[in-house]
TrEMBL record, chain A:
Keywords: Acetylation, Aminotransferase, Lyase, Pyridoxal phosphate, Transferase. The lineage of its organism: Eukaryota, Metazoa, Chordata, Craniata, Vertebrata. Its cofactor is pyridoxal 5'-phosphate. It comes from Rhinolophus ferrumequinum. InterPro entries: Aminotransferase_I/II_large, Kynurenine-oxoglutarate_AT, PyrdxlP-dep_Trfase, PyrdxlP-dep_Trfase_major, PyrdxlP-dep_Trfase_small. Pathway: Amino-acid degradation; L-kynurenine degradation; kynurenate from L-kynurenine: step 1/2. PANTHER family: FI04487P, KYNURENINE--OXOGLUTARATE TRANSAMINASE 3. GO terms for cellular component: mitochondrion. The gene is KYAT3. It comes from the Eukaryota. This is Kynurenine--oxoglutarate transaminase 3.
Length: 460, 512
């Protein structure tokens, strides 16, 4: 059992007195059984593909933040309501009998049509709804299908650090070898620190590519940094993909969430890139309905068909009523894409205000924020605060893990340590940073403000 | 494979080193062109390269010939774009785990069914509404707390895992912990996938009882496992006019012989799809004793657990002595509440196994949709209150479906089809041997089993859709079981009446 599994067990034991005894009993009876039939413990071993992949930062930290008295700026989910018309569409659909049964495996017809229409506009090309689109269980499911479908034993996959934490275990589960490269900050003396100050060194990036490189995973806008890759930056990546005949898995779940002065660009629209790019989107992030768990992949059929093979051998179909409701919601917004009322335009406006508020708040208490150009997270350097973490156990944990636990316990404010988005070797590079989510209602941000003000008063 | 790179290298438009993949076969482009050519022209290898060397002197001609061979391979694709695509990707694209599993037998039948005006008794889903309480539960989940639009607990929405734990705890006679022993998945299909990925390794053997739901084999293969098949065989009894699914049995000696030191799991499906067989206690005890003897995990697919007829009892193998600790029991909200489109399933099992499924789950889809889980939880809560009573859906629904099954059996007999009385599930199979004797030569592909040809003929000419049972058999066994087709009887009264009309027309044609 890995360290974190053991910790998880202990944490479970500490929740609720009577359950502790029960859990302990189960555990010890298993031990005695193992000693009499060693053969059983061998057979019940997990398949090699998941060896070492059992720990998960979210499971750990969601439990920590579950205490209702904690202001939760950790996990990336909105505590604001989805738009009214989205909820209404789902309500209407729930009354339609036929939508309670199976639909087309690779995507409900009306949804893939809507996606084909929307992305046709964005890509400026005809996109075949049946052959070039696949609907999946969230963008997470799209990532899984892409990696399982296209990554083999021994393939190298370039991952940019920090990275959404599932990329590494998914690549490993597929037998691939992750190759990491870190975003590095330019010096920022005087001016405000922005996510655009964090870049990839083109030479360093080029050195990561070789004949074994099967794919590079790109995430723009970026989680946790909020970086929105520029045309030049994407061109560097595109040139390398073409030179080394590499695929690009482009995670664009936050595609609508870009702030003033920035533009989301799709690498698949760059010359030579359509045929080698898988682009992933998310209903959860587009319409603030993370619990619908619908995502999609857009790409050329010679790639999509392999993701479809994974789909037909894993979950087969996604939920029908949710797909139909999503299709209807899309049609509403597709018709008014130039309108400020369109959710694709109104949400980023709403979030930019919250972003600016968070920047100001974090600044005011001595946490050094990196202003995100996109996405709904903001990371901040917490080391200058020099918090007293001496009473925190688990001394072998990175600084930010300890800081978040300390902050959750003592300040009743939760966040996510950025080293959770790093591989073992790069954790130290980012252990001063902590990630806050700001797609939260005003009262949540007010509560966070209260905590931060009080924190400030304590310091002075 | 011949080496003709040298002759083509000299042409500016030819790119001899690129390759493209098509369903797991890999070949160099130039070689492919030559093979196509030699087949069509019946040239020997040396003659071919000589002839082509001459023919390909002109670069434009090269292009045209490349185009020609591509068109034969992939008719209908936008040609220039396709060429551009395939010319640029040189690496083998798909992972090897997809080899042998990209085939989808359902596509052709679903397509055919939608093209013809046929009564769809093929795919297994109800064409009538779910029970009111389920629809209401979903509506309440949608209009309730707006936070149900956001992520819930990854391994299962807590109220759902709690009710599953308490409901099935009673049924299995087992203390079930909602957090350690329950995982919610995207349908039972997702549950199966998660189980295979978690436990089956390269070279592990998985025993599959045929005929079996068609995903077990590809899921085993995708996990690097080796499927080992054992067939249920018909031992007909003379005293009944029609066979029953209970007449299809495993030979104990044969089953025992399939277990080796490499056997990791056995997948059991009861009630069985496509047969409708409900495994008896004695049969389950046989499977259980072998699993224990050989230390094998039992994956028990029990999606149709409530659909049992003629007083048959569904027994979960996990409830037998010594089996809880080595069994994963899979269930489906879709089949339980007639809501296949909600795609909510679950696995119940000991923590020693479940923890591995959780690892796969958190690295594949992570969360399942929240609102449908809330609706399923509420539906189970309703059933728990009515459990065992006449008002319970789990009592009413199988009674109603049994009447449909009986209706279908009578109707099918009228045209000389011989249905096998199914003890459970959504389906029954029908013997088409008489038709095979009378019409042995139906159109189809070279190796296409008879039942598949028959189904296509029936869809086009008789307006009825069924599924050939050979789809549920491994390749090597298909030829022995090519005289059965599967019908789904969980259909609305109007659909069954439409079926009667088609059968009547068919009967009239036979009489004429």
């Amino acid at each position: 059992m890995t360290q974190s599994m053991f910790l998880a067990q202990r944490r479970l034991c500490s929740v609720g007195g009577s359950r502790t005894k029960y859990l302990k009993t189960i555990y010890s009876s298993k031990i005695s059984r193992f000693s009499t039939s060693p053969k059983m413990s061998l057979k019940f071993k997990n398949a090699k593909r998941i060896e070492g992949l059992d720990s998960n930062v979210w499971i750990e930290f969601t439990k920590l933040a579950a205490d209702p008295s904690v202001v939760n700026l950790g996990q990336g989910l909105p505590d604001i309501s989805p738009p009214l018309y989205v909820k209404e569409e789902l309500s209407k659909i729930a009354a339609i009998d036929s939508l309670n049964q199976y639909t087309r495996g690779f995507g409900h017809p009306s949804l893939v049509k809507a996606l084909s229409c929307l992305y046709g506009k964005l890509y400026q090309k005809q996109i075949d709804p049946n052959k070039e689109i696949l609907v999946t269980v969230g963008a997470y499911g799209s990532l899984f299908n892409a990696i399982q479908g296209l990554i083999d034993e021994g393939d190298e996959v370039i991952i940019i650090v920090p990275f959404y934490d599932c990329y590494e275990p998914m690549v490993r589960m597929a037998g691939g070898t992750p190759v990491f490269i870190s975003l590095r900050s330019k010096p920022v003396d005087g001016k405000k620190w922005s996510s655009s100050d964090w870049t990839l060194d083109p030479e360093e990036l080029a050195s990561k590519f070789n004949s074994k490189t099967k794919a590079i995973i790109l995430n723009t806008p970026h989680n946790p940094m909020g970086k929105v890759y520029t045309k030049e930056e994407l061109q560097v990546i595109a040139d390398l993909c073409i030179k080394y005949d590499t695929l690009c898995i482009s995670d664009e779940v936050y595609e609508w969430l870009v702030y003033t002065g920035n533009k989301h660009l799709k690498i698949a629209t760059f010359p030579g890139m359509w045929e080698r790019t898988i682009t992933i989107g998310s209903a959860g992030k587009t319409f603030s309905v993370t619990g619908w768990k619908l995502g999609w992949t857009v790409g050329p059929n010679h790639l999509i068909k392999h993701l479809q093979t994974v789909q037909q051998n894993s979950i087969y179909t996604c939920a029908t009523p949710l797909q139909e409701a999503l299709a209807q919601a899309f049609w509403i917004d597709i018709k008014r894409m130039d309108d400020p009322e369109c959710y694709f335009n109104s949400l980023p406006k709403e979030l930019e205000v919250k972003r600016d508020r968070m920047v100001h708040l974090l600044d005011s208490v001595g946490l050094k924020p990196i202003i995100p150009d996109g996405g709904y997270f903001i990371i901040a350097d917490v080391s200058l605060l020099d918090a007293d973490l001496s009473d925190m156990k688990h001394n072998n944990e990175p600084y930010d893990y300890k800081f978040v636990k300390w902050m959750t316990k003592n300040k009743k404010l939760s966040a996510i340590p950025v080293s959770a988005f790093c591989n073992t070797e790069t954790k130290l590079q980012f252990e001063k940073f902590v990630r806050f989510c700001f797609i939260k209602k005003d009262s949540t941000l007010d509560a966070a403000e209260e905590i931060i003000k009080a924190w400030n008063r304590q310091k002075s | 494979m011949w080496d003709t790179a040298s002759s083509l290298d000299s042409f500016p438009n030819a790119h001899p080193t690129y390759s493209f993949q098509d369903s797991g076969t890999s070949f160099e482009f130039t070689t492919g062109v030559l093979l196509c050519f030699s087949r069509t022209l019946n040239f020997g290898s040396h003659q071919c390269s000589m002839a082509l060397g001459g023919m390909f002197r002109n670069a434009a001609a090269t292009y045209l010939h490349l185009v020609g061979s591509l068109q034969r391979k992939k008719a209908g694709a936008s040609l220039t774009r396709y060429l551009h695509q395939t010319l640029t990707m040189r690496k083998r694209l798909q992972a090897r785990r997809l080899d042998r599993i990209d085939h989808n037998p359902w596509v052709v039948f679903t397509k055919l069914a939608s093209e013809c005006d046929a009564v769809n008794l093929g795919q297994g889903f109800p064409d009538f509404p779910p029970p009111d309480f389920a629809v209401e539960a979903f509506q309440q989940a949608i209009s309730g707390d707006f936070m149900l639009n956001q992520y819930t607990r990854a391994f299962g929405y807590p109220p759902l895992t709690k009710i599953l734990a308490s409901f099935f705890g009673k049924l299995l006679g087992q203390e079930i912990d909602p957090f350690e022993n329950v995982l919610v998945t995207v349908g039972a299909y997702g549950a199966l996938f998660t189980a295979f990925q978690a436990l089956v390794d390269e070279g592990d053997e998985v025993i599959i009882i045929e005929p079996s739901f068609d995903c077990y084999e590809p899921m085993t293969l995708m996990a690097g496992g080796r499927p080992v098949f054992v067939s249920l065989k018909l031992t007909p009894t003379k005293d009944r006019e029609l066979d029953s699914s209970s007449d299809w049995q495993l030979d104990p000696t044969e089953l025992a012989s399939k277990f080796t030191s490499r056997t990791k799991a056995l997948i059991l499906n009861t009630p069985n799809n496509p047969l409708g067989k409900v495994f008896s206690k004695a049969e389950l005890e046989l499977v259980a004793s072998l699993c224990q003897q050989h230390d094998v995990v039992c994956i028990s697919d029990e999606v149709y657990q409530w659909l049992v007829y003629d007083g048959c009892q569904h027994i979960s193998i996990a409830s037998l002595p010594g089996m809880w600790e080595r069994t994963l029991t899979i269930g489906s909200a879709g089949k339980t509440f007639s809501v296949t489109g909600w795609k909510v399933g679950w696995v119940l099992g000991p923590n020693s196994l479940m923890k591995h499924l959780r690892t796969v789950h958190q690295n594949s889809i992570f969360h399942c949709p929240t609102q449908s889980q809330a609706a399923v939880a509420q539906s189970f809560q309703r059933e728990q209150l009515h459990f065992g009573q006449p008002s319970s859906y789990f009592v009413q629904f199988p009674q109603a479906v049994q009447r449909k099954r009986d209706h279908m059996i009578r109707s099918l007999q009228s045209v000389g089809l011989r249905p096998v009385i199914s003890q459970g599930s959504y389906f029954l199979i029908t013997d088409i041997s008489d038709f095979k004797r009378r019409m042995p030569d139906l159109p189809g592909a070279v190796d296409e089993p008879y039942d598949s040809r028959f189904v296509k003929w029936m869809i086009k000419n008789k307006g009825l859709v069924a599924i050939p049972v050979s789809v549920f058999y491994s390749q090597s066994h298909q030829k022995h079981f090519d005289h059965y087709i599967r019908f789904c009887f969980v259909k609305d009264e109007s659909t069954l009446q439409a079926m009667d009309k088609k059968l009547q027309e068919w009967k009239d044609e036979l009489g004429a």
